[in-house]
Amino acid sequence: GPWHNYHSAGTVLTGSSGQQTSSEVLDKYVSLLTYAGPDGEKTWPKKYPFCGGVFQSPIDFHRDILQYDSNLSPLEFIGYNVPSTNQFTLTNNGHSVKMYLSPTMHIRNLPFEYTASQLHLHWGNRNKSEGSEHTVSGKHFAAELHIVHYNSEKYPDVTAAMDKADGLAVLAILLEIGPFNPSYEKIFRHFQNVKYKDQMVQVPGFNIQELLPDRPDEYYRYEGSLTTPPCYPSVLWTVFRHPVKISQEQLLALETAMYCTESDDPEPLEMVDNFRNVQEFHERLVFISFREGKLYKCFYAKKLHSDLCKSEILMWWSCCLNHYKNMGVSFSCGSLCSLFFHFCIVAWATV
Q1: pLDDT per residue of the chain (351 residues) written in tens, 0 to 9
Q2: Contact 219/288 with Cβ under 8 angstroms?
Q3: Where would I find the Alpha-carbonic anhydrase domain in this sequence (predicted)?
């Protein structure tokens, strides 16, 4: 569509208010940020036009929009193992907890090389531990970690890159409840030192790759946006397929340790539910680096006669029949079977 031409490499994304941006300005946007209530995310587009525009994030990953892409190769993580003699700055910016990363960290195997800028988290609250931004088949995870990078081949810093269509690349890790995670604790144990807005603490360097799932080669890839105002559609998203586990206690620390307000505020506001709702995903595809679907596993594992496969085949077969019926093709089940069976299996199995 017309947006495709606009959303091209190097396009400057300027809202109708034409604000200039910087990382300080961005923190000013988000420190005033509320997700619920009268000034919640539904009102964002009034001040920030991109929030009501196209290519918005987060989204729900469901079968209808997923397409396997054999060209998606594993990312290369350069300089992610940061020595403990180096320090990261962890800060409470009033709407999340954010850790600035080392400029020696890069990711490759994307259209450009991207340099790390910061990581931050999104979460729910202690009564409802559903705090991820992206969802899978409508399911929320407990929390979500974002590692933000900017296109350092084309732009001098994250500020210059954040409003360009090809400016940012974000890695997203879905978090769920499981055993205690010592790697995440390297960040989480410092939350008590950043309870209030604008507080900062130094975190000794460690291998940031430890925060990723065991199979970082399996991921969802799509073009989307910042999930906070000004919602620039400038992000190439890589959302890892497999969640990472943290303990119930670690999640509780994330949900209860911090406030959106400064330490002297007489009415402290808890930092909870800082995730944006999923956005509409018009006529777009999410490309996946892994084969999807039970049928694929079923046929290629050559377990054609198992009960699982029988039920899957029957379910798929009725979909196939309906598909041709809707197209006005009047085949009997038998003739459709002989004509299209192998074609449909291959097509379905490679989705």
Answers
A1: 333 333 444 555 644 444 333 455 455 445 457 777 667 899 999 999 999 999 999 999 999 999 999 999 999 999 999 999 999 999 999 999 999 999 999 999 999 999 999 999 999 999 988 999 999 999 999 999 999 999 999 999 999 999 999 999 999 999 999 999 999 999 999 999 999 999 999 999 999 999 999 999 999 999 999 999 999 999 999 999 999 999 999 999 999 999 999 999 999 999 999 999 999 997 889 999 998 754 444 444 444 444 455 555 555 656 666 665 666 555 445 554 454 455 445 444 443
A2: yes
A3: 31-290
CB 223 within 8 A of CB 252: no
**∠ at Cα 275 (285, 128), nearest 5°?**
115
Distances (CA, A) of 209 to 10, 42, 153, 206: 29, 35, 22, 9
Q: Residue 162 gets which letter from DSSP?
A: T
Per the annotation, the verdict on 95 as an active-site residue is yes
State the residue for tokens 């097509």.
347
Q: Which of 4, 7, 62, 95 is catalytic?
A: 95
